[in-house]
Amino acid sequence: MEAAVMQCVWATPEPQSVRQVQAQISTERSFAYTTVMTVMDNLHSKGLLARVRNGRAYLYSPKQTREEYTASILGDVLADGGDRRGVLMHFVDRLDEDALASLRQVLDDTPREDGSRS
């Protein structure tokens, strides 16, 4: 459910209330207001959501972009995956041609520690 909440918060540029998020994510499966509130509070505690008080409720917004969040998850996977090179090789083997081309472009555009390009 955390992923569904984050997807909902990323999809809207303005801060969201628990009620708004609940309405969005409950279109396919009904979630109780208190369940969504608990999940959003947990995401706030984890540092993934910012919140500001609006009357008696909070409005939540993401503290990271979807890309930053995904990169942090990939970093965690690499840190916990054992053989980093092996994990990366299996990951690259599953990429389609467009994703491989994007990865090559990013690597070509990323400066090395000595300031030169790849």
TrEMBL record:
Record's protein name: Transcriptional regulator
InterPro entries: BlaI_family, WH-like_DNA-bd_sf, WH_DNA-bd_sf
Keyword Membrane assigned: no
Family, similarity comment: Belongs to the BlaI transcriptional regulatory family.
Record keywords: DNA-binding, Transcription, Transcription regulation
Gene3D superfamilies: 6.10.140.850, Winged helix-like DNA-binding domain superfamily/Winged helix DNA-binding domain
Keyword Cell inner membrane: no
Pfam families noted in UniProt: Penicillinase_R
Segments passing through the bilayer: none
SUPFAM superfamilies membership: Winged helix' DNA-binding domain
